[in-house]
Write a structure and sequence with these properties.
The chain is mostly helical. The protein has six helices and no strands. The longest helix has 39 residues. The model has no long low-confidence stretch (mean pLDDT 84).
Length: 151
């Protein structure tokens, strides 16, 4: 149910609860990206091979040992995929938060540029946003290559 809710509709509620500052922007960012992250990581946790879990249990492993030795390592690809998705979603959250409350930042720049019909300002904001998001995605890709062994 929370994933289907348009998070932008929560904007006014978030502003009332957290104030019209950076905390509202951060809460909007979390609201947009957290549900997708939880669903993706939980899906990875549930896809662990039952044989691995049974083997560890038969040797008397604790729940924490099972998590560290089987569940977490098997879920790394799902966690990386969640990170890749959240690079874009977190920027959506930041920009939406800035649309609502900010007096500075890329979201404000884009909104202000559109209000005064300055397409150069809007496109500059979009290009900077694209470059920063691309750099973040690049770092997640490097992390993926270090954590996942390719043949």
């Amino acid at each position: 149910m929370l994933n289907a809710l348009p998070k932008v509709a929560l904007g006014p509620v978030i502003i009332v609860w957290a104030g019209a500052g950076i905390s509202s922007i951060l809460i909007m960012t979390l609201a947009i990206s957290i549900i997708t992250t939880i669903i993706g990581v939980y899906s990875g946790f549930m896809q662990v091979e039952e044989e691995k879990l049974t083997l560890l249990k038969s040797f008397g492993a604790t729940k924490m040992q099972i998590f560290k030795m089987a569940v977490f390592p098997s879920s790394i690809p799902n966690i990386i995929n969640a990170l890749k998705i959240n690079v874009g979603l977190s920027w959506v959250g930041v920009i939406m938060g800035e649309f609502l409350v900010s007096k500075a930042g890329l979201g404000y720049l884009i909104v202000y540029g559109s209000q005064v019909f300055n397409l150069d300002l809007v496109m500059a904001g979009v290009v900077v946003l694209s470059v920063v998001a691309g750099i973040m995605y690049f770092f997640v890709d490097i992390l993926e290559k270090k954590l996942i062994k390719y043949n």
